[in-house]
Amino acid sequence: MKSIFLLMIAAVPLIAADVTGKWSGTLTVSTPDGEKPGPAYLVLKQEGAAVTGTAGPNEEEQYAIQNGKAEDGKLTFEVGRDDRVMKFVLRYESDEIKGDVSREHEGKLQTGKLAVRRIE
């Protein structure tokens, strides 16, 4: 009985680690004028460590995720749009994903913070 209980406890992080689902929240971009929050919406599918799906500001405007990987609570992927690539380096725990976003634009590095929660 004790070993079954221990197996159940050990399996909980594996179940919680799947990022498959719909996520909604905020992408806050750092600008010379300060922080500018905007909407963020992700649709993710995880198979093993591979993550696919889409990301964008809302459900209607979505862009394909490339090079997606989820491992040990870390989620990384890229989203290309108009010859620009946004790089996401995130942490996930249960129903929350947070972390850093960056991209090169006109020779300058732009950064931001993503914070989303599972909605489905």
CATH topology heading? Lipocalin
Spatial order of the strands forming the largest sheet: 1-2-3-4-5-6-7-8
Overall mean confidence score, pLDDT: 88
- Count of DSSP-assigned helices: 1
CATH architecture classification name: Beta Barrel
The general outline is globular
Which range does the strand content fall in? over 45%
CATH-wise, what's the superfamily? Quinohemoprotein amine dehydrogenase alpha subunit, domain 2
Instruction: State the end-to-end CA separation.
Output: 34 Å
Helix content: 10-25%
Low-confidence stretches: 4-16
- CATH class membership: Mainly Beta
Evaluate the radius of gyration.
Answer: 16 Å
Primary descriptors:
120 residues, mainly beta, Lipocalin, 1 helix, 8 strands
Summarize the structure.
The protein has 120 residues and is mainly beta. The protein is built from one helix and eight strands, in the order H-E-E-E-E-E-E-E-E.
Model description:
- Helices cover 12% and strands 67% of the residues.
- With 120 residues, it is mostly beta strands.
- The chain has one domain (2-118): Lipocalin, CATH 2.40.128.
- A hairpin with a 2-residue loop joins strand 7 and strand 8.
- It is globular and about 40 Å long.
Task: Give the secondary structure arrangement, pairings included.
Elements: H1 2-16, E1 21-31, E2 34-47, E3 50-56, E4 63-71, E5 74-81, E6 84-93, E7 96-105, E8 108-118
Antiparallel strand pairs: 1-2, 1-8, 2-3, 3-4, 4-5, 5-6, 6-7, 7-8
